Known about the structure:
Rossmann fold; ten-stranded mixed beta sheet; Isoleucyl-tRNA Synthetase, domain 2; 31 strands; elongated; Isoleucyl-tRNA Synthetase, Domain 1; 39% helix; four-stranded parallel beta sheet
Amino acid sequence: MENTEKKSYSNTVFLPKTSFSMKANLVNKEPEIIKFWNEKDIYFEILKRNENSKTFFLHDGPPYANGHIHTGHSLNKILKDFVIKSHSIMGYRTPYIPGWDCHGLPIEQQLLKELKISKRHITDVADFRKKAREFAQKFVDIQRNEFKRLGVFADWEHPYITMSKDYEATVVKAFLELMEKGYIERDKKTISWCPICETALADAEVEYNDKVSHTVFVKFNIKKSIRELENFKNLSIVIWTTTPWTLPANMAAAVNKNELYAVLKFGDEHLLVADKLLEYFLKSSGISAEKVYSIQGEKLIGIEYEAPFVNLLKEKYRYNRKIIATDFVDMTTGSGIVHIAPGHGEDDYFAGKKWNIDIFCPVREDGKFSDDVTMLEGKFVFDANDEIIDMLKNKNLLLAKGSINHSYPHCWRCKNPIIFRATEQWFLKIDKHSLRDKLLDLAKGVRWIPESGYERISSMIRMRPDWCLSRQRYWGTPIIAFYCKKCGKLQKDFTVLNDIQKRIERDGSDFWFSLPIKEIIPSSYRCECGSSDFEKEKDILDVWLDSGISWYSVCKNRENIYPVDLYLEGSDQHRGWFQTSLIPSVALNSTAPYKTVLTHGFVLDENGKAMHKSLGNVVSPDDVIKKYGAEILRLWVALSNWNEDVRISDKLLAVPIDMYRKIRNTFRYLLGNLNDFKPQKKISYADMLEIDRYMLIKLSALNKGVLESYRDFEYRKAIKAISDFCIIELSSFYLDVLKDRLYTMPFDSLERRSAQSAMYEILRSLLVMTSPVLSFTSEEAWQTFKKEVDGNISESVFLNDMSEINIEYKDDMLSSKWDKIISIRSSALKEIENARKNGLVGSSLEAKIIFSVGDDDYNFIEKNLNDITVSCIVSQAEVKRSQGDLRIEVIKADGEKCPRCWQWSVDIGKDDRYPELCLKCASAMKKNSNNG
């Protein structure tokens, strides 16, 4: 009986085969890849490979060591990792030294909370600092592991830590140098003060939030007038304030000397307000008064009045106050006369200095009135507002009261409203030696990304006050200074001070807090007054100086990398680290510490809201990693428009997840079709088939574009270009077209090896150029590549250079030709799809295409008909001359379907040995058989 069963040829075609799985399983695989990087010292191998190359140094802004990392940390560190890795594969030497900010109020407060005590109850400072150090170190270790889990490369075992001996010593050294150059002074000034944290605050530690405040219009009774106003009986000036609690500290009233002021008749009294604000005053206060006279503001200077609470003050403050003139009195709100309390306002302070007025501050560090104000002593200032308003009413000094919702300064840490308070503090003088002008000038030479960064920081520099460097806390770098107890003089013997600095470098700074000063300075040391009795400075330095000196500690004396190439932080650091690094660098070295500053936005939830535990909208890095893997977080960062605020949620992660899947599948397909490839049998570019050369030209263009994007820090542009290449150029075109060659051509044929040679170059290039973003997957694929395809490639994907991956493939004529073929293909595929919808054909291999076209296009199509047929993945095609534009007809292919290649052919049955196959497959079977 005749055997009619069809023979299977599935085992005669070369299907893809690889251990690189379709399912990523990133959650389990990533830790194994990190282990591989650690065991092989890949970070240091990269440095070793590029040790003779130009250095690119990104200086790490230190995160605060007081908790687990959040998504904002991930955004920052992953971006930095992109920079380091991309510059590494561009051939740069890229050391990356991570840092941690370990001193300061947040750690101190968290520790006090754990110990269930207040600052006032710290009895053993040395023990408290020891516990703070342990607390900070715990979170340095936690965060280090969390950052490593993100796939970030760094010298993790040798970070810079602001609480280390050598780092503290560098901070003290910089402080002493600044003092010696005249930039550091101790002065009584009105500064931002947190009454809850009981410490001074730097400008960068103040944030503005809405607050409802009391408003009052208050009369100050004139006691000594001028002749021009002597006929106006019971005359008072009217002030308006949003801080009634500062009225006991009133020391003057300010007018604008260039404005007119109106005298109002108010019953049997007279009131003085700015003429321009007359209508505003009457409407806001609700009183009825008649204007009877006008007088120039300049004439009011020197008039004496009685402060409203002068009777509550100590004897030395019981005197009449005077009217002065200042430039900051405006005509937008209020009465046009400003109550001046130099001890509680920055503008007021400078006015007080100018007019030689006492800087009176009757408020303690805990925000409560001191014994300078009887009746209010011990009362918290904000709680005293109602009582003060009642007292004004009882004194018949209150004209009107109200409230206002306005932007008010709050403490960055405890989030409570702050006060302004005059105290003795250490300051870095911003206008000393024209420092402000130098800062503005040198900031111009920095490349700011985005460009608006310069305007932002320059406006802040123009407006910023002197930098208050001292803090009234325990956990920080001490201010190395001491005073004579007898005469009070600050001792500026830099030989002694520098010896103390060297001791800190050797022993750390804790001795400063535990030893008496006589055991720290030489026993023979004397003040100019002859005394040998001294006391130490108790304050510590602002943590912003700690981190602001990091360029000095980490970069200045290392491998000529200062100024560094890049600072990369959140946009809030224009008022923080960017500024606090710039100031000491310019003061000490007359240079900015950085060449380029790049900023990113904040991470918000999917609705654009800030993430808070109380809102239940927090997306933590740990959540994402446990669910999807760190690779998805990395791809989310790359795809984000991170110059602005970025959003994250499970829904928004769907985009990077989908892109990742497509890129991974491309890697898998390339690996699968290279499983039997012998790299030593690679076909040279010149001998490759045209379509293979065309794709290498495309690859070269991609390589150049990605390099340019990496240089410009445009990671979204880079990864989208790579993704488009994988999806559009490879999956949708080239790899689809190659299937017949790869699967059915003779094993060792030119056609097959040409395709594999091109795929080898493509895969190798893609893995290297993708590695800065998809670090885990590119490494996983590289190790599979090394194991299954080419054992001679480098140990890690990161030990490569993009510029070495492929030569400069270029052939304009070939590119033009294949661009046109692809255009024709695109039109043909549309017609094939229509034929499929109409049931004429199933797969494209069942189709035959007939091109009807004019003379010019006829010659092109006829000449390249085979390439066009292969590109369209149809069994047959022909071309006819006709008039007009190109027309494409799809009909059923001639002949029968070959069971091996699935193409339709009219020559099936013509080979005696393989009568059921087309002649192409029959020939391939014979060649494969002959090759064993």
